[in-house]
Structures are given as C-alpha cells and as structure tokens.
Amino acid sequence: MSSFYQIDSRIENELEQFKQEIADYQAGEITERVFKALRVPRGIYQQREEQNYMVRVRIAGGGITPPQAQTLAGLAEEFIEEEPHITTRQDIQLQGLPGVKNLPEIIDRLKEVNLTAIGGGGNTVRNITNCPFSGGCSNELLPAAPAAVKLTEELVPREDSYEMPRKYKISFSGCRRDCAYAAYTDMGFIPKNKNGTLGYEAYAGGGLGAHSATGVKVFDFIEPAEVPYVAEGIKQFFREHGNYEDKHQARLRFVKQKYGVDKFRRLCREYVEKQHSKEEMNFQLPDLPAERPAVKEETPAVEDDWFKANVRSDKNGYYSVLIPIPRGDLPPAYFRKLSALSREHADNNIYTAQSQNFILKGVPGDRLKQVKEELSEIKPAYGQPLSPVKARACKGAATCKLGLCHSPNLSRAIDEKLQKTPVSSDGKQLKLFISGCPNSCGHHPLAQLGFHGIIRRNDDRAVPCYQVVAAGRLDHNLAGEIGVVPGYEVPELVADFLRDYQAEDAKDFNTYFKNGGQDKLEELVEEYASIPPFTEDRNYYYDWYAQEQFSLEKVGEGECGAGVISLIESDLKEARSQLKKAEKDRGDLKEALIATARALLVTRGEDADDPAEIFRLFQQHFLKTELISPEYKDLVETARVSDQLSEVSPEQVRELLKEVTDLYEAMDSSFNFPGETEETGESPAEDSAGDFDREKDLRGVECPINYVKAKLEMEQLQAGEILKIMVDDGEPIENVPPSLREDGHTILKQEKVEDYYELLVKKGA
User: Fold this and answer.
1) Whole-angstrom Cα distance, residue 720 to residue 340?
2) Taking a C-beta distance cutoff of 8 angstroms, is the pair 113, 71 a contact?
3) Cα–Cα dist 449/468, whole Å
4) Burial tier of 609 (Cβ tally within 10 Å: 0-12, 13-18, 19+)
5) What number of CA atoms fall less than 13 Å from residue 137's CA on the CB side?
C-alpha cells in the first residue's frame, strides 16, 4: 500500500484547476493579491522573504509510507532550500521554495503517492489530527488514526469545506488522556466506554490562538457511525453562523462566545440532526497499512535511560519508539534512512507527532537494541534519551510572516543552556511549548511552561520578549499568564525553574505547581523581567542568533490588504451559494443580492450590516458612478425597499453578480477600478503647525476598514504630501502602518497619545 488515504477525483480536478491558475499567474493574467486568495487554501504560503514559498502537505492519520517518504525527500532535495519540517498538526512543510515555477511538478509528484497540500491553509477543513501513538498504545480504546483518515476522505473533497468563515480543525484522541487535545480544538472526539459499548464524547468550540478556549461537550456519547454526521453538521453550523467579516473573531469558539454555552450546544445538536436528514454517511474505520507483520517479543533486549524515555509498550507486546527531531526539522537524507529503518524493524511506516517528532510502531522487543544503534548511526541525537524538557516550537519569525520572535532559535538556545546545566535524570520532564506570536501554533496554551513572542520597547528600541504562561491542562484549564521577560533571559529562567522542579519531592508537575511551583515561577519572572539600556547590554535587543538588531521593520507585513480580499471573496462566495440555494428551493433571492451588493463596499471604506444601507451604499458608489451598469438601478432599488423579490428572476441576480465579479477581477492592488472617477473627498484640514497636509480620525474603525479609509485619504494627496491619522491601540496600530508601508508610503511618526496612536504618513511616488 502506498498511502493511508486515497485522493478523491474531486480533489484531482481541483489540483488541475490550480495548476492552470499558477500558469495564469505566471503569465500576468492574475494579480498577486488574487493569486494569494487562490493558493492559500491549497496549502501554499509565502514566507517572509519575497517570492519564497512553503508547501504544507497534509499527512492524514499522521502516517507516512515508504513511497511517500521517498517522494517528500526527493522534492526537498530538488526544489527547496530548507529542511522539511514536522508541524504541531502532524503535517510536513516543504519550505524555501523559490518562486512558483516548480509548483505544478510538486503537485503532480505528491498526487502520485496520494499526498496533497489542498486544505493546508486558509479557511478550510485543516489536517485532521490524532493521537500519534494510535495502534501502538496500551490505553487506546478506539483507533484514532483510522478515524482521522476516514473523516479526511469524507470531508476534504466537499466543495464547501473550502468556503468556511475560518479554519476548521478536528482531532481524535485514542484514550481518555486526550493526548491529541481533542477538547481544545474546533471539533474533537474522545473515546468512551459506556456500559461495554465503545463510542465518543464530542467536543466543539475549543481552539488555540490569541483567544484560546476549551471546547464544550456537545454529546456525552455517540457511536462511531455518528462521527461524520457530527463533524459535518457542526461544520454547516459554523458556515452559517461564523463571522465572515472579521477573521480575528471568525473561529468557531467565537460563535460559542456569542451565543453562550447552552444555545451553542443546542444549535450544534440541531445541525447534526439536520445532517441526518440530508444524506446517508458511511463511517467504517479502515485498517491502517501494515505491510510487514512483526513477531511479538514480550521482553525487550535493552532497558536503559533511552528505553525508559523513548520507548512505549503496547497491549500486543510490540513497542513504539519516539525519535527526537530537534525543532521538527529533518534533513532529506535522514528522512530516507528513517523510512528504511522502519521497513526493516517496525511496521513499515513512520509517523508524525504533534511534538514535532517521528514515531516507529510495531517494533519487536528483540529489535529495540538494534533500532537504537541504527538511530545513533543516522544521527547521534536520534539514539539519545529525550531531554528533560519536552520542547516544541512553531517556525515563528524563521519563515512565518506573522511571527514576531524567532521561536526555533529560542528552543535551540534553551537546549544549549540545558546541556551546560546539570539536571537530574529522575524521569521528571517538563512540557515546554513556544510560539513566535500569540497565535498558538506552538501550542503554548497547553504547556506546563510556555512562551509566546511579543514586542516591548526599552531605551526607544524594540526588544524581543516573551509572555510566560504555565500550568496548561492543569485541572483541564489552559495555561495562565505569569508575566513578561526578554527573550535573552528565557534560557536562564527555564534552567532555574527546571532545577527547582526536579529538586522538589512531588509526584508530578501538577502537584509541584500547586505546592510552591507557581510562586517560584513568579519569583523568577520578576527576577528576569528587567531590560538594561542598549549601551549597557546589547544582547537584549537581538533575537537569538540574529546578526541584526531586532526591529519592528523585520516583523511581517500588515495583513489589511489581504483582509480586504478575504472579505470580498467571502461575499462573492456567499452570493453564489445563496443564488444556487434560491434556484434549487425556489426561495427568495434577497440574500444573494445582499452579498452581491456588499462585496465591493469594503473598497470604498464602507462597512454596513443593514440590507437597506448596503443597497444605498452600492447605489452611491457603484451605480451612480457607473462602475456597474445603471441597468441594475431598478433591481437594486426594489431590493432596498422591499422584503420580497417575487418579481426578480435568478437570471437578473446572476448577471449582476457576474458584473460585480468582473469588476473585482479588474481591480488593481490599490482597490481602484478601470474608468473610475476620482472623488475629491474632504477638504484638507487646517494645520497651524504645518507638519501635515490632511487629517483623518480613524479611532473606533476596525480592521481592515480603517486601512481602506486611510488608503482612500492617501489617494487625495500628491506624492510627498503628509497625512495625519489617528488609530486605536491593538490590532489597528499593529496592522495599518505596515500595510501602508507595503503600499509604498513612509511612516514618519508613530506616537502613542493616551489610548490611541497618531501617525504621520508621507505619500510615496
């Protein structure tokens, strides 16, 4: 068998379409912004360096077969400039792809071994994760990996799985310990034995991010056959009730927050019941591929520190071996060697773990010594016991545009510090998770000791710092904030905290933290929180192993422009969906018209929810200006004043939607349309100081509307003239300045005044 799951014909068609879109982009027929909207849901991200891309390959069930390992290693050697990376969602990222020229070949070669990046990014059903020891765990009640594979085959080919308000993440745990964090994701399943019958508890509305949350138990018990109805039903609930306008409030957990737990649970159940009436869904768990049966061996041939730290026994007498992959980065040659080792001594495959490590399963006890020796030959670290710190880190500023701090380098610095620091080997391990920003890709809310990157200013300079969090999953809670320390001091803090933890006579971390550990951590955070002046110690003003001083200029570009595109795409998709629904059910067409009229309003800096106001603004900005043909004047006026559109035909709505779509596709990167007449806007403000030519107060205006309004104001100026803008603290100040800078303008001044910021922006040529 060459793969764990088979690519559906619908996905194959999607891949062919994407290859054509890549060709159109290369030919200049698709703009950069439109291409971004097309490639991200297909798992293709641009990295921090211009025209440098990453391909996030979906690994269903976390399993990689020998042909797949050969293909991934080959692609890495031929086309990319960095080592393949294991993510905290069990994907494999091919990073450092220079340009898109070779993307079609990469797509084809992945498809040959049933691998794809489809759904690896964007507002889609993401990789469905599972307990990495599935099939090799003595506590497993239901096999988690086969369930993840089967649900992948069910959900991923569906067209509406790519038309979500935001990403939809699903996880399966195999036992009650919830090793796969099912209770902390959008949709999660934890097995349960109810009076001798095996099934699942189903959770929804959890998730990690800037506002992490624990899920709500929607069903106390469902049988396995119910899984697809629950996952698809709650997906449809999310699609209909999620926030399409503000991506920062768009995850399923914010729908839970909006409605409250009781109503959220009730609505989830109603949508699951609706799914039962829509279609019959078959859910029979497949067997994972195991081409090389092994001979059971109860007694291992090695019982040293490596065995105690890295090896698990399963209920059938076999063993699973965890291979520590530092920071999840794996040289292609090692990829091949580990795959060959599994063919020789294990179940033929290698498995990705959320810990960014690899796992071998089905190893007979009498092979363990040989496995250890061969792992050491591949790389000495692979045959060593796990570090007392079980660390994981997202890529952070190494590649991610959103990364603030270089989290992999901090992980490396911690490793080097601990190698120089005597620590005991009493078996106590510390789960330490690092994210480069608050978005939780490194799972810091689930850490015993966690860090996420933030920026602080000292001595009029930016300083890479980390928010310290602790006690994740203690009593089923997410990690709580302790304080902020500069990145330079984090390794010292970790070493001190680990020494204290290992010195205490506590049976586990929870006991330690409740009985003095929290006080110790707070003491350490206070001790290491200070930042000396730049002239006294420059180390604090550099990220770990960086050659250049840390700067806000190095932080990723603002996302406001991408936010505008996302809003437009969302409305156009909604319009198409509502039109299709109205034609099928002979229903009212007004919802399709509302989405059509609203789609481009964001480019004019308008944000309206009331249908009558949406149609009025559409008339003002697009019909009166004749950007859209005046022949639709009566149609839009009828929609504005009437709740019923019985006289309106689907053909009329479809034609208007096509004209709006065509206008969008003709839009340039400044949100201008062909033939557009420039409006004069407001008169320039009087300024006694004479240091700016125009002024705009954008306090209270949310992203990305504030950016669009600022952009429209900039269009009223001549090159070299200056606009003064007032924006709120938080997301606006984080996104608007870098977005304007990306447009070619210069930020002359950025100053905080009470609870907002004043900007002086010089218009570029």
Assistant:
1) 62
2) yes
3) 7
4) exposed
5) 22
**3 state SS of 430:** strand
Continuous segment of H or E residues that includes residue 58: none
- The label of the residue with tokens 């409740």 reads 514
Q: Comparing C-alpha atoms, which of 488, 366, 493, 382 is closest to residue 430?
A: 493
Q: Which helix (H) or strand (E) holds 293?
A: none
Burial pattern 161-197, b for ≥16 Cβ within 10 A else e, equals bbbbbbbbbbbbbbbeebbbbbbbbbbbbbbbeeeee
Q: Name 135's Cβ contacts closer than 8 Å, sequence gap at least 6.
A: 143, 145, 288, 314, 347, 361, 362
Both tokens assigned to 33: 């912004």
**How remote is the C-alpha of 689 from its chain's centroid?**
46
Tokens of 218: 């929607």
Task: Compute CA distances 454 → 44, 214, 435, whole Å.
Answer: 26, 23, 10
Q: Confirm whether pTM is higher than 0.85.
A: no
DSSP symbol at 602: G
Task: Tell me the Ramachandran region of residue 741: left when phi exceeds 0, alpha when psi lies from -120 to 50, beta otherwise.
Answer: alpha
CA nearest neighbour of 481 among 430, 441, 520, 525: 525
Report which of 689, 702, 675, 701 is spatially closest to residue 760, judged by C-alpha positions: 689
Distance from C-alpha of 9 to C-alpha of 540, rounded to nearest angstrom? 53
Least confident of 68-72, 183-187, 672-676: 672-676
pLDDT in tens, 457-466: 777 678 899 9
Q: Active-site residues: which are they? A: 703
pLDDT band of residue 676 (cuts 50, 70, 90) is: low
CB-CB contact of 446 with 184 (8 Å): yes
DSSP state of 15: H
Q: In what side-by-side order are the strands of the sheet with 311-313?
A: 63-64, 350-352, 358-363, 319-323, 311-313
